Amino acid sequence: MSALLELRGVRAAYDRITVLHGVDLAVAPGQVIALLGPNGAGKTTTLKVAAGIHPAASGQLLLGGRDMTGAEPRALARAGVCLIPEGRGVFPNLSVRDNLLMMTFTGRSRAEIEEIAFSRFPVLAHRANQAAGTLSGGEQQMLALARGLPTDPAVLLLDELSMGLAPLVVAKLYEQVAEIARQGVAVLVVEQFAAAVLDIADHAAVLVRGRVERQGHPDDGLRAELSALYLGSST
User: Fold this and answer.
1) Which has the higher per-residue pLDDT, 235 or 75?
2) DSSP state letter for 185
């Protein structure tokens, strides 16, 4: 199956400090790719390049085979790229319903957006009039995902979905991510802690100091090699 999202030889820098040294990644429709690595490896920068938020110094960003290198974030969003950033990205002082209301810019009605969100995450229906900031961490992450779904993303970029959440909550969230992928969405997930995502990943890449040091199917010996590639991520 051909890739929907592809990074070819991507280099990226902040000022004069290069943080990505020729990253190659490809994500096909319906596939979950886990991008693993220690803090400072360049994982979030990779997502930002894929979303058009940070420029590539060199290399290519392809979307459906089309060269989108240098495209603005808005253009990539219109083309179907949806980034759920670290920190959940919800508006804490607004209710769940009002957080969802903001997604009517996609052209869907409020009723359609709420139907999509509440059918995927029923707990949000029970919290509809509650301020988002008073939700649990897991519920806030559900809301962040629910806000992205009405855009009908072709590519879903997730940054540290497990951050600060209990393992059981993380497992439930990743079950939903796997279901989203089964609908044909290409999913690229950044995680520091491999165990959180490898059970649903079709493919994994390990980024160390801005280079992909290892990639393959999670069961092709990659799990066993993780602790050697970087400490603290295999548990």
Assistant:
1) 75
2) -
Cα–Cα distance list, 30 to 113, 147, 153, 162, 209 (Å) = 22, 20, 12, 21, 28
Q: Please give the Cα distance from 31 to 37 (Å, whole number).
A: 19
Backbone torsions φ then ψ of 180, nearest 5 degrees = -60, -45
Residues 6+ apart with CB under 8 A from 111: none
Q: Look up residue 70 and give its two tokens.
A: 């240098």
Q: Which amino acid is at 32?
A: V
Dihedral sign for Cα atoms in the order 29, 21, 174, 84: negative
Dump the DSSP string for 116-134: HHHHH-HHHHHTTTSBGGG
Each residue's pLDDT tens digit, 118-145: 999 999 999 999 999 999 999 999 999 9
* Residue entry with tokens 């050697």: 228
Q: Is the pTM for the entire model greater than 0.85?
A: yes
Both tokens of 118, joined, read 């509440």
DSSP H or E run through 211: strand 211-216
pLDDT band at 230 (very low <50, low <70, confident <90, very high): low
C-alpha 187/C-alpha 155 separation (Å) is 6
The residue behind tokens 């059981």 is 168
CA 42 – CA 103 distance, rounded (Å): 30
User: 115 Cβ partners below 8 Å, 6+ apart?
Assistant: none
